[in-house]
Amino acid sequence: MTSPVLPSHGRARPLGLAQVSLTGGFWGSRQAVNATATLAHCESWMERLGWLANFDRVADGTTGPDRPGWSFSDSEVYKLLEALAWESARTGDPGTEAAIKRLTARVARAQDPDGYLNTCFGHAGQPPRYSDLEMGHELYNTGHLLQAAVARLRTRGEDDLVRLARRAADHVCRVFGPDGLAGICGHPEIEVGLAEFGRALGEERYVEQARLFLDRRGRGTLRDIPLGRAYFQDDVPIREAPVWRGHAVRALYLAAAAVDVAVERGDDELLRAVERQWERSVARRTYLTGGMGSRHQDEGFGEDWELPPDRAYCETCAGVASIMVSWRLYLATGDVRYTDLIERTLYNVIATSPSADGRAFFYANPLHQRVPGRPAGPDEVSPRAEAGVRAAWFDVSCCPTNVARTLASLHAYLATSDDEGLQIHQYAPCEIRAELPGGRPAAVDVETDYPVSGAVRVRIAADAPAPWTLALRVPAWAAGAMLTEGGRTRPVEPGLARVRRAFRAGDEIVLHLPVEPRFTWPDPRIDALRGCVAVERGPEVLCLESRDLPDPGGFDSLVVDPRSVPRAVPDGARVRGRTLALADPSWPYPAGPAGAAEGGEWFDVPLRPYHEWARHGPSSMRIFLPVAPDGLEGTVAR
Amino acid sequence: MTSPVLPSHGRARPLGLAQVSLTGGFWGSRQAVNATATLAHCESWMERLGWLANFDRVADGTTGPDRPGWSFSDSEVYKLLEALAWESARTGDPGTEAAIKRLTARVARAQDPDGYLNTCFGHAGQPPRYSDLEMGHELYNTGHLLQAAVARLRTRGEDDLVRLARRAADHVCRVFGPDGLAGICGHPEIEVGLAEFGRALGEERYVEQARLFLDRRGRGTLRDIPLGRAYFQDDVPIREAPVWRGHAVRALYLAAAAVDVAVERGDDELLRAVERQWERSVARRTYLTGGMGSRHQDEGFGEDWELPPDRAYCETCAGVASIMVSWRLYLATGDVRYTDLIERTLYNVIATSPSADGRAFFYANPLHQRVPGRPAGPDEVSPRAEAGVRAAWFDVSCCPTNVARTLASLHAYLATSDDEGLQIHQYAPCEIRAELPGGRPAAVDVETDYPVSGAVRVRIAADAPAPWTLALRVPAWAAGAMLTEGGRTRPVEPGLARVRRAFRAGDEIVLHLPVEPRFTWPDPRIDALRGCVAVERGPEVLCLESRDLPDPGGFDSLVVDPRSVPRAVPDGARVRGRTLALADPSWPYPAGPAGAAEGGEWFDVPLRPYHEWARHGPSSMRIFLPVAPDGLEGTVAR
């Protein structure tokens, strides 16, 4: 079975990548751009910046203090290798296969005889191995190497990459094992890499080492830093932590590993702990987009209800990591709240980052951009995570390769199976050829232009002698969804809508999801969003761009009428609004409310999907729109 | 004349420190605590942490890479010396004088023969001189040394500190002069130090060097950094910049120096530029408290209208720097908007930082604290600027000594004179013994318990044969102020209320300022404050602390009725409010407004002055209070 995540047991089983294929649509086109543009784009940038040559320098003994890139640049090569491995298996493209061999060979030459593999530490002119566990990222890099090896192992079997990864994993187990150095890495990732590599190889030791790293964490194992040990989740043991905090990507990679270890060890206490953390973090520390990370300062979560739209960090990598956690939790529990969040994150974080041509990316994904970004040149490395424009590459460039490996394996997240049948979670044109226990075929073709329309047509592609259950996820937002089968149409509730039959080839089941644009209100405790409303369309969050306004200058003084009904248009929605004529004060804290200002004419405010913002040039942007005075009644409870 | 700032000309003249003395009250007591506790506290911490020994190590040739403290720790010693110098002149206390000599002697031993003086660069085991202009703070440190020397020179005349400062200034002029290294310091401060030292010594060269540093800036003279060159104001020349941006303390120290240079050079273009920057920054980038700096990431200004209360940085040092700028602008222009902002900043930033015993300080001064801080031990060095509790000392400890030098010289900012007479700007119990041109005495005693009450009694202390004008500042917030003189009471407008007479000793003028608590509303463009209202009392901003609530758990769901009238009570005010019974959502973005939630009983919400917050223990705190639904009408223009 080929899939990024294969727990030994759970409420649902992932389908193998060979059993699902995207045949077009919103995600199929993005997966194609990823294959034809992004993968080569990433390799060329890493060559150009010397991040690949860093491996050659270790092999050639020419390392020195002038090493380019951050201590984690090795991991970008490994994330690209992972993406290439999934992609090669998907299409069998020889160029992709050649790239894997090319990169693997260069990486392999840099491995020390004892299995240690890192281009930033432990060689001439470099700090000693493991001399900076807080910030050195050595084990973090290795974790991504193991994930790349998992992709290779499950799609092509043992090869050079798998073998060198095995030596690297053995080295880690020797150095950091029960009798070894009682350290952990400042950036979790080795844990999730070891757990999956252990599952793929049937190597208990690796899963056990992951557990050891997890249990060492949260006890002040790492040095304190000005940001505090919460930054790398070394403040509270993961079993005791009530919520995610600190650096978002760190917190989420750690949580993903915790689910893996909990499942493999039957450790329900640990699983419950991560579920509790997910619940509170999603209820109080997550953006409407599914984005996580409220602070630029530490790329981290804020306190409960601290969700500023303008300074939202919502790093693309945190979106990837959030999907990693929710997918593992779904497989373990079968609770669709997890696949609901995955859909939200896919459409509003993952889809937002890459440019249409797959050669530029958002790093941070704020919900409000005050000042249009400065267009970045195609050859410009952006030192800024917060440009307001997509950049070809970043000084800290974790996001592009993370998007690449996610899109290359996206079909792994569409559907699952259990003893009863098939569950479809994400709707895209695709073919699913699964096999249920006892060799029963569960084959369907999905046709849809979702999320533009809400009609999802599922056609049975093979006769099934015995009945099986087709379950279709009805998102939590989809009140009023309907299901048509055998000529009958019935309402279906959010959750899994089930159809159980002895299906015949050609049978059709159609799910109708209500994707008309709708208003969404923030909880009154989210101070930064008080008196505002957002518009969503199906799984897509919509936004306003200043360039789409008749008068872009009115962007800061626009208010909308929440009693009007958002109107669907092909490129998004229209909502009734007006701009206020606000005086320019010398002091912005007057003795009375600005109640007397004149409002302009009401007009149709154009909204587009958030994932499209800044595709038409730099712009001010906002998702949450201030509501006009009459509309304010009721925005806070009476 | 002894005063921190003595321009060669301007619309108003500062009074000498010898001409004004605080005799008690709000500021007199704080100045006393500063003298008896804070100064010794600062010296003992710098001794304990080795920041003073750093000077001995340079003198003894025992420097090395193990130097404790940041590159700017020297400046803390200099800021303490400046504070001690003002304090020694104020009281003539021999212990204070002894401390100055003690510290001066240790500093003097560390000066290189060519005048270079720095404990972090240029000696054995250290990076070379001026090898990191962006972050090395060498010239920044020297700037503070010069300000300390100014204090000494103007209060005691030339002494060892003045002589070594002169050598240091000459060194800077040699190295960075017109024919020298065309560099600038990443942290402005040398400019304001050189300008004032030049004025104090009548050394044109120093003022000219300050001008040179100013004009070199804003042209990409410094290396770019991930935060961008705006961080240290090297992005746009100061004459062209429309607004303050980047690191707030850097921006404001630079602006203060620009006013000095503009005044000394009669450079009206430069003066207008700083006035423009002040206007827009105060109108769009300043907090109700007068605090400046919206972002933790770079301790910097945000974009226009970006003023989050919870993540407000509002560094104490930025408050000090803001007063430096506004005071210089007032002296140059005589516009009371500058002294208005000084009052706001004094009561709500400067007074907020130190603990009652003068041995703990706030570094950041947010307007909303979500989670109570962890009490810091008296011996604990806080690595965090954002603790929510006052800390005895900080890893980056710029604020305590900045507060110390400000409080030690606070009486310099109370009043000014011009050819017509005396202007009183800040109201505190004090004696003013000024002399107008032609030797005319202008002597008054001020009695008041302002800001607790609004009655300010000014008693003439000496007969004046010829008439002169007593001008009293009426703050912009003081609508309805009255003035009583010669038995008659008349309304006075915000601005300067003038009384011109041939005063006789014993004459009394009484200003009545309306200090009843009042609602203050945010501009609708400040997104983070939408739907909220604050309460002010005279110059004090009030706040709510969770520990003062009957049910602290209701802090996050409290709303107030803005149509009620805030009621004055001795310790602050009471305003009508209630807590909402809000459901705990699994997802905080519902399809409808939270309009149905039950509200609890209305009760009197206790508010206290913001400068008192966290004095009674850690607490959640907020200045801007969400308004109840009915009250929301009018908070955004209809």
Structure description:
Helices cover 33% and strands 18% of the residues of chain A. With 638 residues, chain A is an alpha+beta fold. Chain A has three domains: 13-22 and 32-413, Glycosyltransferase, CATH 1.50.10; 425-512, Sandwich (Immunoglobulin-like), CATH 2.60.40; 517-631, no CATH class. In chain A, the strands form four sheets. In chain A, strands 3, 16, 17, 18, 19, 20, 21, 22, 23, 24 and 25 form an eleven-stranded antiparallel sheet that branches. In chain A, helix 11 packs antiparallel against helix 12. Residues 631-638 of chain A have low confidence and may be disordered.
- Summed up, the domain count of chain A is 3
The total count of helices of chain A amounts to 14
In round numbers, the mean pLDDT of chain A is 95
CATH fold field value of the largest domain in chain A: Glycosyltransferase
Q: Tell me what the CATH architecture of the largest domain in chain A is.
A: Alpha/alpha barrel
Share of β-strand residues of chain A: 15-25%
CATH top level assignment of the largest domain in chain A: Mainly Alpha
**How many strands of chain A?**
25
Unreliable segments of chain A (pLDDT under 50, ≥5 consecutive)?
A: 631-638
Greatest contact between two chains: A-B, 83 and 83 residues
- What's the shape of chain A? globular
User: Cα-atom Rg of chain A, whole angstroms?
Assistant: 25 Å
Query: How widely separated are the two ends of chain A?
Result: 56 Å
Largest sheet of chain A, in brief, is: 11 strands, antiparallel
- Which quaternary structure do these chains form? homodimer
Helix fraction of chain A by DSSP (H/I, runs of at least 4): 25-40%
Given helix and strand content, the structural type of chain A is: alpha+beta
